[in-house]
User: What shape does this take?
Amino acid sequence: MRIDRNLYLNRLISKMHNGKVKIITGIRRCGKSYLLRQIFKDYLLGNGVNADHIIEVLLDQKEYEKYRDPNALYHYVLSRISDQGEYFLFIDEIQLSWKVKREDVDLSRIAEEDRDLAYTTFYDILNDLMAKPNLDIYVTGSNSRMLSKDIATNFRDRGSEIRMFPLNFAEFYAVSGLEKADAWSEYIVYGGMPLAVLESDETEKARYLAGLFHRVYIADVVERYNVEEAWLGDLIDVVSSCTGSLTNPSKLANTLNSVSHAHTTDKTVKKYLDALEDAFIFEKAQRYDIKGKSYFDSPVKYYATDVGLRNARLGFRQIEETHLMENILFNELITRGFSVDVGAVRFAEKIDGKKVEKMHEIDFVVNMGLKKIYIQSALSIADPDKLKQEITPLLRSGDFFRKIVVTAGNSKPHMDENGICYMGVIPFLLNPDSINA
Assistant: This one.
């Protein structure tokens, strides 16, 4: 079955011929290679591009192994350009490219801190090929040598990153063949990793998702940061358990020291958390003081890039729809290209007849240029006290930005007398413009 990833196809189309290297990033196994070599290639062929003007280099295949040498890759690409027509270069799994010492360089005469400059890397050859006016370049990469910070450092303003995610709920629903409610029930358990979505057997789904952590993600982070695998696994378990809860490295270190006897520090935990973010396993949301218009250093929230992976890591023992719905909403907002923070509103309220100043939370502050939208994720607001708990921070925000409460189920959007919009999570996720509905 073909899964069309039109959201990402359109982003690639919008960046065609922009004079930059298009770099498709994202958690491993989310469909980056398929997007480039199948979906985007089919689009080009269907729009009149000749097949011989699409240069494909698949560095994970034996046929192309020699082009892991960046110099050989450079000369191969030039040899394929035979006229002034527009060419498209696809390099898949570019992290497999070697670092090759320049022949005319004597390392003994170069200071230790400068020795990286004595090697030719794929960054060098891509930056050179980018100068060819009739060559449009696209690359995919994964594992520990192709993380987002590397791209930002080495390409700077010469690279155009397309961040790819597992299937969101709308993509999943389109291929599931299920009714909306049934699709939601399956999605919150198994998530949107493409091969898991295509697998019909639930046992195999679970086995595949659990195996990704052991065979792929943990191995990548261990390789890059030289960390202890068991210790890293414990940290992943703790962060997965508290997905969507406020935390910080010090709190996590205390938990690891107490439960796992890790004998670690908050600085070490922070380093490992950064590594897990950089590998796209978790995404961090900072806390924003809405009235003070400033960020708090701590605490923060971490959300799993895919709830199926998170659930598999915990042995499918913590399937709590409240937290999973919040996680899915966060991922959806990030997928749509928004910057998302956790909102904090400080105001006084009466408790036992006394005024007490407390910090109240707004789940998501969605940043849209100078505008913001506030969103609360609430499984149910049938209880009046729960409704009051959710809307009070929205009403006390002190501004007139749009406010939305997303609840479980399939209820259509409606607005109350305070101008707060309410809608079910299913229509919110299925309508790409729901945030403005």
Summary: The chain is about 40% helix and 25% strand.
